Amino acid sequence: xxxxxxxxxxxxxxxxxxxxxxxxxxxxxxxxxxxxxxxxxxxxxxxxxxxxxxxxxxxxxxxxxxxxxxxxxxxxxxxxxxxxxxxxxxxxxxxxxxxxxxxxxxxxxxxxxxxxxxxxxxxxxxxxxxxxxxxxxxxxxxxxxxxxxxxxxxxxxxxxxxxxxxxxxxxxxxxxxxxxxxxxxxxxxxxxxxxxxxxxxxxxxxxxxx
Length: 210
Fold this sequence. Notes:
Blueprint: H1 2-14, E1 18-20, E2 26-27, E3 33-34, E4 36-38, H2 47-64, E5 70-74, H3 79-89, E6 93-96, E7 109-111, E8 118-126, H4 130-142, E9 145-154, H5 158-167, E10 171-176, H6 177-186, H7 192-203
Parallel strand pairs: 5-6, 5-8, 8-9, 9-10
Antiparallel strand pairs: 1-4, 2-3, 6-7
C-alpha cells in the first residue's frame, strides 16, 4: 500500500490536484490557514488518473472489505468516484447528501439500498472526518450496515483518527499527507525548509498562521 500511496501522490501533484504553497497559504472554508490544498475532483478530468483511482479503490475494497454488498458515495466529491467503483464491482449504488432535501421526497440517501445490506462508503478526502462520518450516521439511520470507508486522500489529523475510532469505522486511503510530503521532497517540488513548514502545520492546523 505504501507504494500506491507514493504513486498516487505523484499523480495528484502532476495534475495539480494537490497544491503546496508554504509561503502563500490557502484559506479553507473552515477559516483554517493551510499551506496545502487538495482537489481530488480534478482526477475525473484525466482518464488515466481516473481509472487508477477507480481500480485502486476497488482493490482496497476487495482486500479489506470483501464482504461488501453495496457502495455508497459521499456527496458531492465522491459521487462520481463511488459510481465508478460500484460499476466496476457490479454492486448496487447510492449516494449520501450532507442533509435531507427540503423538497420532494426529502431524501438524504439517494438511490436504493436494501435494509441490512453491508455497505462500503467511498469518500474523496478526509480532513477532520466530520462530514464523512455524518454520511455514515445517515446510512446507519437508513438501515444498512456500514462495514468501512475507502477514500482517495487523508490529511491524517489526530482528531479525524479519533473520530473514526469512536464511530467504529475502519478507514483505508489510497494516499496521505506524509506520502505527499515525501514525494514532493524527492522530486524537488518543495525544499527541505518547505517540508519543515508543512510538517509544523499538520501538528496544529487550526492555529497555524495566526
